[in-house]
Specification:
This protein is of the alpha+beta class and 100 residues long. The protein has a domain at 37-98. Helix content is 30%, strand content 10%. Strands 1-2 form a two-stranded antiparallel ribbon.
């Protein structure tokens, strides 16, 4: 007769400890709290832009323009502005101006 294992029994096949959770890896890299630096304000976006916009290529830049225009439209729809102006500048930049 084969004994049945209880759900939280350690199993050599699964690598689970008696609590039923995967065994914790031993920290060997020396990475810890002292290596973590909190970035203030927009510093985080400037340092890791892809984390926030998904891409630093043309798609990401277009996404930023859509977001800025969408925010202006939302303000207008909520009654906080009357005009939205989107300008493509000579240098290739885009300026979005509203009065909301």
């Amino acid at each position: 007769m084969n004994p049945q294992r209880l759900p939280n029994d350690p199993s050599p096949a699964t690598g689970l400890d008696p609590s039923g959770f995967p065994e914790e890896p031993v920290e060997q890299s020396g990475y810890g709290a002292e290596q973590i630096r909190v970035l203030e304000g927009l510093e985080a976006v400037r340092k890791r832009p892809a984390m926030y916009i998904g891409s630093t290529g043309p798609e990401g830049l277009h996404h930023l323009v859509y977001e800025v225009v969408d925010n202006s439209v939302d303000e207008h729809m909520a009654g906080y502005g009357e005009t939205i102006e989107v300008s493509l500048e000579i240098d290739g930049s885009i300026t979005v101006t509203d009065n909301g």
